[in-house]
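Re: the 492-residue chain
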Amino acid sequence: MEDTSFSPWLLCVILLGVTYVFVKGQFSQKKEPPGPGVLQFIMNMLFKSRQSPEKHLKELSRKYGSVFTVYLGLQKFVVVTGWKAVKAALNQDELSDKHQSPIIRDLSLTHGIVFANGESWKDMRKFTLTNLKQFGMGKSMSLERIREEVQNLLDVFEEKQGQAFDTSFPLSFAVSNVICSIIYGLRFECGDQNFKAMVERIHTNSHLLGSPSIQLYNGFPKLFKYIKERKQLMKSSLAIRIYVTKIINHLKETLEPHMCRGLVDAFLLKKKQLEESGIRDSHFHEDNLVSATINLLAGGTDSTSSTLQYGLLLMAKYPDVQDQVHGELDRVVGDHPVRADDAKSMPFTQAVIHETQRLMNVFPLLYHFACKDVSFQGYTIKKGTSIMILMSSVFCDEDEWEKPHSFNPGHFLEDDGNLKRRDAFVPFSEGPRSCVGQSLAKVNLFIFFASLLQRFRFTPPPGVNKEDLDLTRVPGLSVSPSPHQLCAIKRI
């Protein structure tokens, strides 16, 4: 992170905030989680640490334990770290509401699935889970769409003829097209500039949402309302919303009750059914529809494509592991296209995908909210307190993993070579807020990854040693690899 320059007016704001926090703390009679003192709070706000937020929080957990308190601006957060405490937090209903930061409210993302709360969220989650089963994982129509996008992606990689290139956009485009086919019942061509622009905006917005400037805005929303990153986010998000609304309006105009093309059609038909029954104040309204589809498209595209990028990067960095994946593919799949059912007979390839998700977890931080006073891990967390769940601490928990900081597919293999289940492996979270699209994401990850490895061998660019391949993570709403290039060498 970049250092934040010091200024007297910022010092005044922070001192006022510290005074408020300190005075408020004097009147607290309940045992709340410990945390850095007032002086540490001042230092954190005046001088941004060069460490990643995750690393800094892990250091604090060594001092204060698995549950402790920090302040971001004037906002108090209770941080939860380590598998045992995180599992308890994810499964405690009183802590399952989502924290809605100022920027999330500004972007009108409080409807839909990801950031919504209450009955609206429950209705949207139930509807989405039901219809993703209808149109998504395991259905012949969705598997055919995945195979089509895989073939298009293989063609794009083959056109590079072994030369170094950036894999990020081709992967994002292919994954987003699969998701769009399930949400909208539509597929977009690579020459569609509007769709291409939306995919790029989704990726950019993810990084902006995790930037230091937006974190500063969330801490002091009135003071930093006009920073350029917020303006950029507002403009870009509006463009995405307008584009998605146009697609939905097109689907409305061509809606046929007896031919449901995807999740949006199912939503529109449900809305129509409720209105015909005299129910006009349900949660099936346009804001929920637009937000839910953006949630699914943005969350699914960025997380899956980033994991695939990391998977290919790790194969180039660890060629011996890549050799074993190639060997398993040759034995099990041979020349036929990779199928979802092949995963059952490919424990090593699955272990490599799982280990990629563990080590390079793309959602290192989750933000929840206490909907009422709750006793947790021996402390009292007051109603209205924001909860920061450090998922990266779960995947590097030394009590759960033999080599937590190394790439080791053996974490997921039994002695006999079969796939091993690990309780602390929760890349899609768990509990009431677990990812609604995890079944589809698992299928996408396996078929895309295995298909690419079946056709190609991935190597560093000419002049770059495998040891020099950078695994640094770019922060965002979901994290992704730093810009890099790879060579995709066609296998014979």
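The chain has a mean pLDDT of 89.
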